[in-house]
Amino acid sequence: MFKTVLFPIDGSPEAREATDAVINIVQTYGSRLILLSVVEEQLATEEDPTMPDMMASPEAIAQLLQKAQALFRERGIQAEAVERQGKPAFTICDVADELGADLIIMGCRGMGLTEEGLADSVTYRVINLSPCPVLIVP
Q1: CA 100 to chain centre
Q2: Among residues 110, 120, 121, which one has the least CA distance to residue 11?
Q3: pTM of the model
Q4: Which DSSP category does 43 fall into?
């Protein structure tokens, strides 16, 4: 049913919480697991111009993907890692389409939830743009 599962990760607690659901589905269906992390170049905000955004650092993304692969390997799951640059929601959907994902699994909120509300969250945008079903893990 779910031959290819795409799991976008951003280092957020919500993404970590979704890991158990990913493991369960991948093991149940014998799915191919693709981990995706998106490097997003952002301008420093006026609120805190010195605050580094880990998702804007290719080095931090590479480290995040390596740690995630090791975590899944411990559970007997080979995970492929994909790193892309761009706007997270659009990039997630593009990669899902490009790789023929049957399911995207995400935490309920990643680092993209803004004060403006739900409509600006990465999760909300992925739900509305995705070429395949999206499982949101609370």
Answers
A1: 16
A2: 110
A3: 0.85
A4: P
Question: Helix, strand, or coil here: 87?
Answer: coil
Q: Which residue has the tokens 């395949």?
A: 132
Rounded distance between C-alpha atoms, residue 81 and residue 74, angstroms: 16
Check if the beta carbon of residue 80 is closer than 8 Å to that of residue 34: yes
What letters, b where the CB count within 10 A reaches 16 and e where it falls short, cover 41-58? eeeeeeeeeeeeeebeee
pLDDT per residue, tens digit, the chain (138 aa), is 899 999 999 888 899 999 999 999 999 999 999 999 998 866 444 444 543 455 667 888 999 999 999 999 999 999 999 999 999 999 999 999 999 999 999 998 644 444 555 566 888 999 999 999 999 998
Q: What distance separates the 2 farthest-apart alpha carbons in the chain?
A: 46
Q: Are 8 and 127 in contact (CB under 8 A)?
A: no
